[in-house]
Amino acid sequence: MFQLSVSESERITNSIIYKMESTLHKKTQETNDHSNRMVAMVLKLGEKLNINIKRMDSLKLLAKFHDIGKVAVPGHILRKPGELTDKEYKKVKVHSEKGYRIAKKVPVLNKVAQGILFHHERWDGKGYPHGIKGKEIPFISRIIAIVDTYDVITHKRFYKNALCKREALMEINKCAGSQFDPQLAVYFIEVMQKNEI
Fold first, then answer.
1. Is the model's pLDDT at 197 over the cut of 50?
2. Peptide bond connecting 138 to the previous residue in cis, omega within 30 degrees of 0
3. Distance between CA atoms of 112 and 94, rounded to whole angstroms?
4. How many domains does the chain have?
5. To 5 degrees, how large is the angle CA 47–CA 127–CA 119?
6. What is the predicted pLDDT for the residue at 32?
7. How confident is the model at residue 126 (pLDDT cuts 50, 70, 90)?
8. For the whole model, what pTM was predicted?
9. Is 140 exposed, middle or buried (0-12, 13-18, 19+ CB in 10 A)?
10. What is the Cα–Cα distance from 138 to 24, expressed in whole angstroms?
11. Could you tell me the residue range of the domain that residue 137 belongs to?
12. Average pLDDT score over the chain
């Protein structure tokens, strides 16, 4: 009987996760490819950093659900083919806090709620939502910030063209110490220079 309840619980959890992923992808027009690329990159970077299995599981989960709060942002803003107004940008910026609240209510995502909340913080303290800086930012959030930025700038979006890998890595390097954890940026660049993702 216990085995049956565990199995049923896992089935329900998997169903919830699938529905959340599906809703996110429909709303943001981001494909599963974005999540899959993010997972592939965090696996490679995690390997380079000798991250343990438990933390790696959290990183993979965060790679998939870092933007879950975008389900609460109006679709016309997310799909706008141009620069956002200040008012629109403020609505987008709340997605990390909304994502945090969603993750806190879903047991399997609870362990990455803090990572979701802080993945737009910057090393120099000029990020959002709280303006924390340096090592105050959770380690997994600092990793996702780099990986997400790289993936976004190397793939075409409604509002911008893609950069090539070399240009994107130059941008990551340029922002090391301001936007990104400088040491993690170095490791990320090394990993990406050796891998085709």
1. yes
2. no
3. 17
4. 1
5. 35
6. 73
7. very high
8. 0.88
9. buried
10. 24
11. 2-194
12. 88
Tell me how far CA of residue 88 lies from CA of 18, 75, 96, 102, 149, in angstroms.
28, 11, 15, 21, 20
Output the domain CATH number for residue 78: 1.10.3210.10
Averaged pLDDT for residues 12-18:
71
pLDDT confidence bin for 34, thresholds 50/70/90: confident
Which amino acid, 160?
Answer: K
Phi and psi for 153 in degrees, rounded to 5? -80, -15
| Cα distances (angstroms) measured from residue 87 to each of 91, 92, 160 | 7, 9, 20
- The model's confidence at residue 17, banded by pLDDT at 50, 70 and 90, is confident
Q: Which two tokens stand for residue 118?
A: 């802080």
C-beta atoms surrounding 193 within 10 Å: 10
Burial class (CB in 10 A: 0-12, 13-18, 19+), 9: exposed
Helices of type H across the chain: 2-28, 32-48, 53-65, 75-78, 86-93, 95-105, 113-118, 139-153, 165-174, 182-194
Phi, psi angle pair for 157, to nearest 5°: -125, 175
